[in-house]
Amino acid sequence: MAKRVAVVLAGCGVFDGSEIHEASAVLVHLSREGAQAEVYAPNIPQMHVVDHVKGQPTAEQRNVLVESARIARGNIKDLATLDVKGLDALIIPGGFGVAKNLSTWATQGKNCSVSKEVEAVLRAFHAAHKPIGLCCISPVLAAKIFPGCEVTVGHDTECEQWPYAKTAEAMKELGCRHVNSQVTEAHVDARNRLVSTSAFMCNAPIHQVHDGIGSMVREVLRLA
């Protein structure tokens, strides 16, 4: 039986939704490993819409589920319908949508809240001892919900290669243990069954990001 993995998206586009390359890499690696991906997204308005040419917010309004459907080629379900009982694992790609639509990390940092729907899903998989894969910024969701957990967003010292390293410090302040890692690596918190990788938190070639996500996917499936 193929393992069934829920993939939760946060829109379509790095600055206001799911990072498209990360989401695609997750789906490619799940397919390569013979797993069945089931894509979900919350049916809610986006925090805002960003013009990805100018890098500036616009006056448009878009829906997270509708935008996520672009990545899923229309094969997507409302997150409210997710039933953990029929699934083996959960993976949440990164992108600013995680920090804007699935939580308020973008505006409130460590003082953020996680959307009730997303928190309920994360807690359901955790309670069922089913693995959770997180990449890029999405480990902040685990840091907020599961104090004492171990995750990685890459490195905790800011430099040209690691421009978002301050995220690691904020996560530490939430009581989680941040583990420094390379972009091609995934870190496994065996106790909490969390697998994380830095992805585009690192200023790295896209193939290295893709390889790191592959490491994360394989570890998630190993634990499933």
From TrEMBL:
It comes from the Eukaryota. Coiled coil: none annotated. InterPro entries: Class_I_gatase-like. This is GAL3B protein. The gene is Gatd3b. SUPFAM superfamilies: Class I glutamine amidotransferase-like (SSF52317). PANTHER family: ES1 PROTEIN HOMOLOG, MITOCHONDRIAL.
